[in-house]
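Here comes a specimen:
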Amino acid sequence: MKRREYIGLDLTPVIDVVFILLIFFIVTSVFKKDELALMLNLPEADAKAIEIKDEQVFIELNENKIAIKGLEVNFISLEENLKLIKDKKSAIIVKIDKDTKYERITKVLDLLQKYNLNNLALVTSEKNKN
């Protein structure tokens, strides 16, 4: 009588393939970022954090550039984007670099007021508590 040998599966290649697939998906996936277009140095404050929702509009402003919803624009196209906002109660999140001239800030705030967009939140960085 012949004795049957147990033929087992070698799991080493299966584990290798699983790790290769895992690395592939990690490397190729895009992690969602806040819709940031400009590198800003925000001022510090002790304000409490707010909850950010997808329908909110982000405006970023520094000394030379302005961006809305993650896209760099000029003041004319910013105004056109603000005209298109139907819900006047939607939150407008404004991130302003702390070295930005006050004149540029007032220009953006005037545009927001012109289109009756008054639900405004200014973003700051959290103070270091040393």
Notes: The radius of gyration is 25 Å. The longest helix spans residues 12-28.
